[in-house]
Amino acid sequence: MTTERNGEARVPAETGPAGRAGAAGGSTGTGAGAGAGPRTLAEELRSRGDRELAELLRARPDLLSPVPGDLTQLATRAVNRASVARALEQLDRFAVQTAEALAVAPDPCAYDTLLTLMAGEDREETVTAELPRAVTTLRTRALLWGGSGRLHLVRTARELLAPATTGPAAPSTGLGPTVSEATAGMSPGRLQQILATAGLPTTHDSVTAVEALTALFTDRERMAGLLGEAPPEALRVLDRLVWGPPYGQVPADPGPAVRWLVSRGLLLPTAPGTVVLPREVALHLRGGRAHRIPEPLPPPVETAAQYSPRSVDSAGAGQAFTAIGTVDDLLHAWETAGPAVLRAGGVSIRDLKRTAAALDTDESTAVFWIELAYAAGLLASAGTTDERFVPTPEYDDWRARPAQERWAALVAAWLPATRTAGVVGGHDAKGRALTVLGPGVDRSQAPEMRHRTLELLATLPPGAAPRPESVLARLRWERGISSESGGGAGAGTVTGGFAPGTGTGTGAGAGYGGGTGPGYGDGSRDRAAHGAPSGRAATAGARRGGAPDGWRTAGTAPVSARGLSSAEELRTRLTEWTLREAELLGVTGRGALSAHGRVLLGLPAATDGGDGTDTGGGDGPGPGAAAPAPTASGATASGAAPGSPAASAGPRPAGAFAPRSATEIAASAARAAEVLAPLLPEPLDHVLLQADLTAVAPGPLERPLAETLDVLAEIESKGGATVYRFTPDSVRRALDSGRIAEDLHAFLAEHSRTPVPQPLSYLIDDVARRHGHLRVGAASAYVRCEDDGLLAEILADKRSEGLRLRRLAPTVLAAELDPATLLTKLREMGYAPAAESAEGDVLITRPGVHRTPPRTPPAPVAEGLPVPDDTLLTATVRAVRAGDRAASGEPGPAGGAGAPPRAPGGLPRSTPGDTLAALQAAALTGSPVWIGCITAEGAADRRLIAPVRVESGVVTAYDHTAEEVRTYPLHRITGVAEPSGGEI
Prior knowledge:
Layout: H1 17-22, H2 41-47, H3 50-59, H4 71-78, H5 81-89, H6 93-104, H7 111-119, H8 125-140, E1 144-145, E2 152-153, H9 155-161, H10 179-182, H11 188-197, H12 206-217, H13 220-228, H14 232-241, E3 247-249, H15 256-263, E4 268-271, E5 274-276, H16 279-285, E6 303-306, H17 309-337, H18 349-359, H19 363-375, E7 379-382, E8 388-391, H20 393-400, H21 403-414, H22 446-458, E9 464-466, H23 468-478, E10 489-490, E11 499-500, E12 502-503, H24 524-530, H25 566-585, E13 588-589, E14 592-593, H26 595-600, H27 662-676, E15 688-689, E16 694-697, H28 703-712, E17 714-717, E18 722-725, H29 728-736, H30 741-751, H31 758-770, E19 775-777, E20 781-784, H32 788-796, E21 806-809, E22 812-815, H33 819-828, E23 834-835, H34 870-888, H35 912-925, E24 929-934, E25 940-951, E26 954-959, E27 964-969, E28 973-977
Parallel strand pairs: 19-23
Antiparallel strand pairs: 1-2, 3-5, 3-11, 4-5, 6-9, 7-8, 10-12, 13-14, 15-16, 16-18, 17-18, 19-20, 20-22, 21-22, 24-25, 24-28, 25-26, 26-27
Helix pairs in contact: 2-4, 3-34, 6-8, 6-9, 11-12, 14-15, 17-19, 17-21, 18-19, 21-27, 22-25, 23-25, 29-31
C-alpha cells in the first residue's frame, strides 16, 4: 500500500513489538532531538499503551462508531475531516493557537521551531512553561504525532486551520503564504529581478531563486540591513500588514513605498491589483511569533462583589422558596384551565401572556417556569379532540412533599435538561417560531455549559459573586475555536497608493478550508484595534427580568452584535441564561454560589464565617479580584481538592465533560436539599385578620390552610407576607364549594391570631343569607325563587334583556341560556344565585381539576455520541489490539491468533428473566459469561462475552471468541452459563 505524508493511509511494515518500541520516542514533545520517532500516525498509535488509547477514545468518542477493526482503521478515522473538526472545536484557546502555529510551520516541525512561533525569540516564560501541555493535548487527541524533532500536525487539521489559497484569504494567525507559495506562478525573469534588486546574486532557475529569497527573509541580520534601507512610508505599510490581514490592494500605478517593497519581494503580487506580505517577512517583523497575543493561561474569573456566605445562603433560600411557590401557582392555575396545544405543538402567545400575568412576572421568566415544570414531569399534554396542557399525577405527589424535596426535584430536572427556555421567541432554521413547550428548543450543549458555569462559580471564595463577563471570557477560552476576528480576510478598497485587506466579518468566509463552517480566528486584529486580549472583553448580556435585585450584569451590546460565530453565540447565551436561571432557582444568591448550590455540584458546603451582613467587598477579595490561581497539584487557594469541580480553575481537559447520570444528580440534589432545609421558613397555621377585610399571612401557610384561603379570599399581594382580601364573590365561591356560614366563622376563629373583625362576620352572614335564594335549573335554564317580588325586579332590570327571561309561574322564570352562563350573568348583576339539581337540592360547584395519565419526564436530547464509560473503553481497546494482531499475523496473548476459548458442552439455556439478570450483573462486575445465541441464519452458536451494557433489548459486549466488540439482541440469546476456571 502507498504511504502518505502524514501516514494516514499507510500500513507500516513494523507492526510487531520491536516496531512499536522504536516508535515511542518523542512522546512528551519537549526534547531537542528528533529521535527514532514514528513514521506514521498508525505507528505512533501502536506505541501507545492501553490507557493512552482509552484517553484518545474518551476525548473523541466519534472514533468508536463503529468500533475500528485495528489501529490502522483508527488512525484513518482519526484524520477524517468531520472528526478532526469536532476535535478542534473541543480544544482550549492555547491548544488551538498551538495547532494554528503548527499549521503555518514547516511539516515536520521541530519543537524548538514551534516554541519560537509561540513564545517568540525572547522565549516568553509563561508560554514556554505551558507549551508542553498544549502539545500533549494535541498528541493525546491524535491531532499531532511524531518525535519532538519531527512534529506532524495531521494534514486535515492543517487544511482546516491554514487552508491553501491563492486568493485574499489568510489563516487565523494572520500570516500569508510562504515565498514559495506566493511565487508559484511568477515568471523566472521576474524572480531574477527581485533577487538583483534585493542585492542577491541571480540564479539559473526558479527553485534556487526562491530558496535564496527565503534564506534572505529568514536571516535576521540580513533582513535588518534590508529593512534599514526602507523608506519610512514602506515601513508603515509593513506595519499595517504584519499582524494581518496580509493582503492589500494597490492601484495600477502604486506609490514609491509600495514599489520599493514589491521590487525586493517584501510584498509579492498574487492577483491584478493585490499584493501579499510573505510569511517569512511577517515572522521576522513579529519577532518570530505566530500570534500577537498568545493566551497560555485561562482568563481568571473575577469577583464583582463579596458578601457574607450567610447572606448569600439566605438569599438563595428565599429564591428557592419563591421558585417552589411559582411552579405550584402555575400548575394550580393550569389544572382547571390549561392552555390548548397548538397544531404545531406548544402554547400560544396569548396563553403565555395570560400565564405571565397570573404569575406576576415577565414572559421570558414565565417560559422558564413552564419549561421547568415540563422537564420535572409535572406537566404534560392530554386529550385527543381538545388537547391541553395540564398537570400530571406526579404533581399531586410533588405537592405533598416537604419544600426542600420539591426544590430538589426541580433542580434535578434543570441540570441535565436540554430544552432551553431562552430560545423561545426565536426562530428555527426554517423561519418557524419557537414556542414554549413546542418542538425545536432542545440544545444539546445546555447541560455542559450549565454545569461548567456553576463549576466556575465554585472556584471563587464563598460569598463571592463573579463578573459575568469574566465567566464568559473564561468559557470562550476553554473552547478556543471561535470567529471573534474572522478567519478570512478580503482585500479592501483603494485609498491613495495602498489599502490593507479588511476582515470579512465573523470568519465564515474561510470556514473549514473555504467551506461554510465557522472560521478559526485568533482575534489578533480585533485585539490590536481594541487594545485587549481575545476572550477578555466585556460580553455579559443584560438581565432579562425575573432575577432578584442582588444580581446585576454589565450592560453590553447584544450577542449578535459582538462579532461571534453562531456556535459561540449559543454558548454565550447559554452561559448568561445559566447565571439567570441559577439565581431564579436559588442555586445562587446575589450572584454567588450558595452552600446548597455547592453541594448540588458534589462539593462540600462552604463554612460560614460571616455574621450574616453584607461586606460589600470587605471580607475576602474585593471587586475585580480574580479566583484563586490553580496550583501545580490542581487545587486552588480556596481549598478545593484536586479532581473536584472547584479545582477546575486551571486549563480544563478538552472533551472531558461526561454528564452525570440521573441517579447521581438526584442524589446530589437530595444532599443539597438537606443543606437548604434549615434555611427555608416553617409553614404557619395562622393568619392575621384585619378590619379592612384583609388577612395577612406573615409566612408560608400549611397546605390545608392555604387551600381554604385560596377559595375564601382573593390574593391581593405576595412577597415576604401574603395579603388576602375577602370579597362578596370570594365568600360566595366558598359557599358554592359546599361550606356553610357557620363553617366559615369557625375556620376563621380557629386560624386567626387576631379576633375576627365584625365587618368580615357581617360580610359572611350577608352573602350566606342571599346565597341560594335564587335557584337555577335547566329549561335550557330556569330561575326559581319563593319571593316573586325579587323575580319581578330581575325582569324589570334592563341588564336582564340579554338573558331572554320569561315568567313560567309566579315563582319561576325560564331562560334560553345554559345554567352555567345564567349563573354567571346573574352574579354579574349583583345577585347570589345557587345551582340546583333536578330534585331541587343545591348543587355544590367546584372548578374541574384535570390530570394527564401517568407520564415520564422528557428525556434530554443528546447530540452526537455519549462519552464512553471505562468498561466500553477497555473492551474497545482490547478489540482493536486483537484486530491489529490479526492484521499483522502477530500471535495473540494466549499463544495463537484466533484460538477460540473452550465452549461448554451444550447450548446454554435459561429463562428470559434469569438471562437478563445474569447479563446485567455481568455488565456491572465486568465478568465474562457464556451465552447461547441464534444467528441471523438460524444456526445455534455459543459465545464467550464480557457484557459492557444492556439496554434497549441489546447486549453490547466484548466477544472473547471473535476478539471484537459486538452487539447481541436479547431475543436471540437462549441462555447464560458461567465460565469455568481457566477459560479466559
